[in-house]
Amino acid sequence: MIWVLLAAATALALGAAIMLRRRPVATPEPVERRFAHPEELQSRIEELSGEVGPMVVPQLLRAASDDIGRNLALLEAPATEEETRRGLHSLIGILDTIGCVTLADSYRALQDDFRTGGMDEGRRNEALTETRLLRAELDALTRPEGETAGG
């Protein structure tokens, strides 16, 4: 009888040790990525508020977001070289207008690459990602109070 109890205790201890080793590894919470240069945007918003008034700024930012969306679509899946050229050119202008100079400079570099025969895919993808993040930031800034994203 003692041998049975000893075997059962050993089996339980062994099972517990195995279970402890199989604990799932904790996965870190996903970090929400934000637009990389919000200070540029905020500085320009403050300038625009002084130039055109704080009531007009949300309308300008919504228009910029819409324009960014249209031109982003031209670069995400361009059908022609002309669409790519137009999308790059337009985004540079929009980004400069809303003060996002660093991102505009990224598109200038892509525009230079495009003119000389091709774009670096890594640089292109990073610029597109940053532009999507900027657009989300603009949309959050102009969303009416109490309204949530997507509703």
What key attributes describe this structure?
151 residues, 6 helices, mainly alpha
Describe the structure.
This protein is mostly helical and 151 residues long. It is 72% helix and 0% strand. It has helices at 2-21, 38-52, 57-76, 81-97, 101-115, 121-142. Helix 3 packs antiparallel against helix 4 and helix 4 runs antiparallel to helix 5 (101-115). It starts with a helix and ends in a 9-residue tail after the last helix. The model is unreliable at 3-30 (pLDDT under 50).
Please tell me what the overall shape is.
Answer: elongated
The overall pLDDT, averaged over residues, is: 81
Number of strands: 0
What's the gyration radius in Å? 26 Å
How many strands, which pairing sense, and closed or not: the largest β-sheet?
Answer: none
Strand content: under 5%
Written as H for each helix and E for each strand, in order along the chain, the element string is HHHHHH
Q: What's the tally of helices?
A: 6
Protein topology:
Elements: H1 2-21, H2 38-52, H3 57-76, H4 81-97, H5 101-115, H6 121-142
Helix pairs in contact: 3-4, 3-6, 4-5, 5-6
Q: What's this entry about, in short?
A:
Helix content is 72%, strand content 0%. The chain is an all-alpha fold.
